[in-house]
Amino acid sequence: MRKRLLSALPVLLLACAATTSAAQTALQLRWELVADTQAAFILTNRDAKPLSSTGWAIYFSALHSADSGTVGAGFEILDVMADLHRLVPGGGFTGLAPGATIRIPYVTQPLRNRSFVPAGPYIVFDAAKDMGVPVSDYIAAPFERSQGVVTAEAQFALDSVIRDLPASELPPVFPTPLQLTKGTGELRLTAMPQVIAPAPSELANEAAFAAEYLRAYFRARGQGAGVPLRLEVGTVQGQSSPEAYELVIDSAAGIRIVGVSSAGVFYGLQSLRTLLPPPSPRGGLVLPALRVVDAPRFGYRGFMLDVARNFHPKAAVLRTLDLMARYKLNVFHMHLTDDEGWRVEIPSLPDLTAVGGRRGHTLDSREFLQPAFGSGPQVGRPFGSGFFSHADYVEIVRYASARHIEVIPEIEMPGHARAAIKAMEARFRATGDPQYRLTDPADTSRYTSVQGYPDNVMNPALESTYRFIERVVGDLAAMHREAGAPLRHIQMGGDEVPPGVWVGSPAVQAYMQAHGLTSVDDLWFVLYGRIEQILKAQGLVPSGWEEIAVRKTSRDGRRTNIPNPDFAARGWRAYVWNNVPGWGAEDLAYRLANGGYDVVLSPVTNYYFDLAWNQNPEEIGLDWGGFIDMQRPFRFIPFDYYRNTRVDRAGNPLDPAVFAGKDRLTDYGRGHIVGIQGNLWSETLGGDGRLDYMTVPKLFGLAERAWAPEPDWARETDSARADSLYRAAWSRLVNVVGKRELPRLDREVPGLNYRIPTPGLKAAGGAVVANLELPGFTLRYTTDGTEPTVGSPVVSGPVPLRGTVRVAAFSTTGRKGQTARLARP
Hints:
The chain is of the alpha/beta class. 27% of the residues lie in helices and 22% in strands.
């Protein structure tokens, strides 16, 4: 009888689940922000039956939870883990009759923009606690904020320094080259140029790209019968960089590109590409006669994409690589693993992706990970679940290599490792084999990571941890070899290990006693010493976030970090992000470089592309490190960023005293700044188009600063003169981007959802005057209360101020940006 009852239980649970699923479709959930910290859920029962007073909960993701004790209407909001919370009926809730609505107010931290609103809600009934069903009828209402926003008038003032430049005044090549000399006349091409490269050619790849770029201009004409396009590897006078090139366009002799290496030839082709006008229906091509001699300022010009927090599929990655190649960026840093996901297949450890590559509603993360960032309860859905197969990853590496982009995989450790930890626990349960376990099962340590996880740190006292690292690194190296682009660097994480880890681990205590260690902090050096040996077997040295290069100590009774002398002479590379004014690490990058570490500058204040464009609620992105628009990456001075850091995280004027006593970069230290990198973390990117929106046009500022020589405004010592030079350079950049580069992307990269600027508006004499950060877009307006469309009148001068004037910018494809509004007082 007992066996029969147990066998019937799954059927009963399935029936119960079907009932709960039907019930949830009749629930309507709304969310609204009443004030900066006053929010509310509005729950409506659309069913014919009452909603019970108990026995259910609504789960949701949100970067901020409810303040304790502030939830009304007899409900509670409880934190599950990290950004996952649940709304639970309490003793004061008596149920919800058919057709009835209840408002559930609560107090939260100030919500800056729409990235902070609750997302991915789903309902779970006590009768089937392991099943979550989406609340499909859910809307988070748009909200406005009156304080701290960039108004239409403020935007007008910001953009008023920009000059609308004619095409004849725009620099013809982007990023800015070392030397550009205009010739006489022009080169007229009526047939496809004959691409000439030495044979057998190391430039076959570049020759194929050249043909691809030019083909659209000569589809109805002969192939290879025109003037020559010569590609060569050779010396470039005065340049030693392997990426240097010379491009000559001659009205009689045709086009010649000489690169110090094939990479140099490739970058010469990118410069040629920027000279190409829109194709004409008549065919043919006219190019200005000129000579360019060019080489990059930095050998490392990087962009990091986080595919772990929210997954981005192969197609999005390949498109990102194409954008990088256009603008001469040469390192693609893939953040492949984190607490919320493991995104690359390791064939010998399939649990890494079977468990760590999937998210959905779970009570214990034994089969897959819990929802995060609004990914919801359903396993296998985009952004929450997904990974690159072995073949996908090989294809990505090969695709990048063809464009002279190095792929650097990042495997986070010892913190940010929850996906790996849970996957290896699942492997142990299935096989009983502990050889890849990453935690001590007897560990009683209590800690919480910055993101809210109590179980996300690998144990450095276990030999199984090092077997795991060796296996993963070995498999990644093998995939790079298969792609024909051997692994040159691997990023091993190292950031944000919380206090309290390891102290309760018997394995740790035994290790410390056996090796004479007095503090668990010493295990950090044990871990990275072992990692160094594992990487050495693959011909690699460690790279990681800044924490791998520092030692924790105390000064005047306060915890501080100093460069760790033990690893400085070993060729380690540190990616330094923390330069937030007022946090105390403003000079950390310079101290590490001065101390002998190779440093990649990726400061949060200028290159964290996941930060919102500005304070306005219609934007997306985080705000903890300030705000990043296109100007922040462009304005960065790599060797003296103190000079033009003038505002704090909130945009308020910064007291220059914050930099008093901070280290400056020495001549020796300059030699250890290997480059700069933009970072795009993906917590807020769980939706179509958001990757593009946060990348472009910020990418232009990064590309210019990484490639172009040091600008005159950064060298000028007179502050007034420097500001004047900067304004002129900024005007040139925004005109190039708005009038040439973005229209080119509209033509050549269909569906690229880049950010279109929001107009600035100013009332003047009974009319409204508009301007725009990026000249070249079409401004359209309405005065009847409706949103502007592609059929609305074009702003060609002052607009009469009647009622509320609404103005928006439109791209060459008719895509619309955010609307600016100005009402008559």
